[in-house]
Q: What sequence folds into this?
């Protein structure tokens, strides 16, 4: 699933190679402040990031992504747990000795140094020979297409250009792991989309393990080898983008990664790996169960809007009536009353819709395929 | 409508008049009077005779012998040099003490910082003379520092550590008096410093010292330069500290000027020294204007 023509500098081990993990987190916890004002930013985070992997931490603002990244970089001391870098515990290693570099959210370029001096900064501190520094700086500036602006000061650059310089500066010392804290969030939409592909390309070319933080699910899905979805200081699910999207582990992940319909339901039976559920309005539906056991807050049926099938009235699993429409250009969102507390939202591609334009009040049949319907912990 | 653009400059000029008047009345005129006085002859009990003479300036470097010949006399030159030296010393010690204080203040939570700024300005609330006297109690014979030594028997009854009436005492007094003028501008520049730059430096393998040298100092430079000027210039002309803590033996330019206008009643000579002081300050300011000119560091800390 990675660009094959990128000419990876090292063999891709991301698909499960031998050797120690690039980064291993063992029960990492972080509490800011103490007493009544204590904030538990991380609550026992454990997972491993493989060498040469494009790994994304995805979660809403305040879930602890930055805290986790800062703990790996060494700017923040974890309250408990261990952080291993290629098998070596780095908890006692100060930030400036960790072979890890960061692309800061607001770039943090040194305003009094030129672009070239910014990129050379890390190499100079590592006391590399001048010739090597010059070569590496030129190579990095070429990688991010900023050769022409090497003598500018950061104040004379646009947001996108600063972003590139920040990336070149962090890549120049060839770190084992690159940490990126929402590096694209300050850019406008078009630039952001272009940079996604470029970042992915650079990761493949350099073979450096990327740990990328974002709250944007589209960004996460489009770039990552694997994603860890976080909420309230805990990891909710880890897996490749398709798995996270198609088979969310719980209601939070389902709702955060893409759009979702949730219908409260209770299990009434089981047959052939499927469960039979009853909704408050009395519908009985077959669904696949999520791998994790349902929690205390009850269970819900989950289906993505694009997986809701629409057929002429009388032919569906469930009968419904159109309540409202939302035009999105390439698709249309249809709110369908199926007798439950909340209407079901279906998404239909404009291309497929054809001339059969729908109107509020129209009756139609809704197909809820058991393969698309999942029972999740609420 | 068409008249407006033509009128605007006139109105602007009129609007500036009060400011120009104040500058004229309180800066240009006094300096001009002083400049004129410095080229006149003193009257015996103060005041000036309206006779042109460059004696006051000659007097700074030369002594007039009985036969009217001039002999080089380094006495006043020494005072100029001492003033420079002590002002420089005071500036350096203010910088060494003031920078960490400013750093500490800038690293407090934002809500707490104003409190610290207020605390720093407290010394300004009382009279400079009183505050300088306080140092006599600290440094003097049987002062706060000497007392424990005497009590422990390390120091004999008659002996003293000799802290008072020394260059050290003057430097301490100047440092103490002017340190807020060092702390505040440095604080202002450090407060603006984005702390993620410090983290970025650490991230790029800088030790604390390297981060300080390559990132913090260059970015705090405007504040450091402003602080040094604000301390150096008044230190050069200070007269309370050298008088009280230097015991009148260690004269500085400020003391000398004050002495000439009061006790010695030689106004032209006092004015001439003041002009020299002014010239020295101008030189320092010109050097500052050159140093403060923004220029990138293409080497980036090489
Ligand atoms: N320095 C700090 N002091 C106190 N609380 C903090 C600090 N940094 C972060 N937090 C809190 O920790 C939680 C996680 O923050 P953060 O890691 O920045 O989240 P994210 O990057 O996912 O938005 C938030 O509740 C935040 O308010
Ligand atoms: Mg964050």
A:
């Amino acid at each position: 699933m990675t660009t094959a023509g990128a000419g990876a500098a090292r063999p891709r081990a991301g698909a499960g190679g031998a050797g120690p993990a690039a980064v291993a987190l063992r029960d990492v916890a972080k509490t800011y402040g103490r007493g009544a004002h204590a904030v538990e930013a991380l609550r026992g985070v454990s997972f491993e990031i493989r060498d040469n992997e494009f790994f994304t931490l995805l979660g809403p603002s305040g879930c602890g992504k930055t805290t986790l990244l800062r703990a790996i970089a060494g700017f923040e001391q974890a309250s408990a747990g261990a952080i291993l870098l290629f098998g070596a515990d780095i908890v006692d290693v100060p930030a400036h000795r960790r072979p890890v570099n960061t692309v800061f959210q607001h770039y943090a370029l040194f305003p009094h140094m030129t672009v070239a001096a910014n990129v050379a900064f890390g190499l100079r501190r590592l006391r590399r020979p001048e010739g090597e520094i010059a070569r590496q700086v030129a190579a990095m500036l070429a990688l991010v297409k900023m050769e022409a602006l090497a003598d500018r000061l950061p104040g004379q650059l646009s947001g996108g250009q600063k972003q590139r310089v920040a990336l070149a500066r962090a890549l120049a010392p060839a770190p084992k792991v690159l940490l990126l804290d929402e590096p694209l969030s300050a850019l406008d939409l078009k630039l952001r989309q272009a940079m996604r592909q470029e970042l992915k390309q650079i990761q493949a070319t350099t073979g450096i393990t990327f740990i990328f933080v974002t709250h944007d699910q589209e960004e996460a899905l489009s770039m990552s080898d694997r994603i860890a979805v976080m909420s309230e200081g805990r990891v909710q699910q880890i897996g490749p983008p398709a798995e996270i999207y198609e088979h969310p582990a719980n209601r939070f992940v389902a709702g955060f990664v893409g759009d979702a319909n949730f219908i409260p339901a209770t299990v009434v039976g089981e047959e052939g790996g499927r469960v039979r559920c009853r909704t408050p309005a009395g519908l009985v539906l077959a669904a696949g169960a999520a791998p994790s056991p349902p929690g205390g807050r009850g269970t819900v049926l989950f289906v993505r809007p694009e997986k809701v099938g629409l057929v002429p009235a009388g032919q569906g699993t469930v009968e419904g009536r159109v309540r409202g429409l939302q035009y999105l250009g390439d698709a249309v969102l249809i709110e369908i009353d199926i007798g439950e507390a909340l209407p079901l939202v279906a998404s239909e591609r404009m291309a497929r819709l054809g001339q059969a334009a729908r109107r509020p009040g129209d009756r139609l049949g809704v197909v809820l395929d058991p393969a698309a319907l999942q029972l999740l912990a609420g | 409508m068409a008249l407006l653009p033509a009128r605007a400059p006139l109105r602007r000029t009129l609007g500036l008049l009060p400011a120009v008047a104040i500058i004229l009345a309180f800066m240009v005129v006094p300096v001009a009077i002083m400049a004129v006085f410095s080229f006149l002859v003193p009257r015996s009990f103060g005041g000036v005779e309206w006779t042109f003479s460059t004696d006051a300036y000659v007097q700074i470097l030369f002594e007039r012998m009985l036969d009217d010949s001039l002999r080089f006399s380094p006495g006043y030159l020494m005072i100029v040099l001492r003033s420079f030296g002590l002002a420089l010393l005071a500036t350096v010690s203010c910088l060494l003490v003031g920078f960490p204080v400013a750093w500490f203040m800038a690293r407090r939570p934002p809500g707490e910082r104003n409190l610290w700024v207020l605390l720093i300005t407290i010394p300004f609330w009382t009279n400079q003379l009183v505050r300088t006297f306080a140092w006599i109690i600290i440094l003097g014979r049987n002062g706060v520092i000497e007392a424990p030594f005497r009590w422990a028997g390390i120091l004999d009854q008659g002996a003293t550590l000799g802290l008072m009436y020394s260059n050290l005492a003057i430097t301490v007094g100047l440092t103490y008096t002017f340190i807020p003028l060092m702390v505040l501008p440095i604080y202002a520049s450090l407060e603006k410093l984005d702390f993620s730059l410090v983290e970025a430096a650490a991230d790029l393998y800088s030790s604390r010292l390297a981060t300080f040298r390559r990132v913090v100092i260059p970015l705090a430079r405007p504040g450091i330069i402003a602080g040094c000027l604000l301390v150096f210039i008044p230190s050069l002309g200070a007269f309370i500290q050298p008088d009280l803590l230097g015991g009148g033996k260690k004269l500085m330019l400020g003391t000398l000027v004050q002495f000439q206008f009061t006790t010695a009643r030689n106004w032209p000579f006092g004015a001439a020294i003041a002009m020299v002081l002014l010239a020295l300050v101008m030189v320092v300011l010109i050097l500052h204007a050159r140093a403060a000119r923004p220029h990138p560091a293409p080497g980036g800390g090489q």
In short: Residues 1-16 of chain A have pLDDT under 50 and may be disordered. The interface with chain B takes residues 73-75, 94-97, 100-102, 104, 106, 108-114, 116-118, 120-122, 124-126, 151, 153, 169-170, 173 of chain A (CB under 8 Å). The CA atoms of residues 123 and 129 of chain A lie 9 Å apart. Chain A has nine helices and 21 strands.
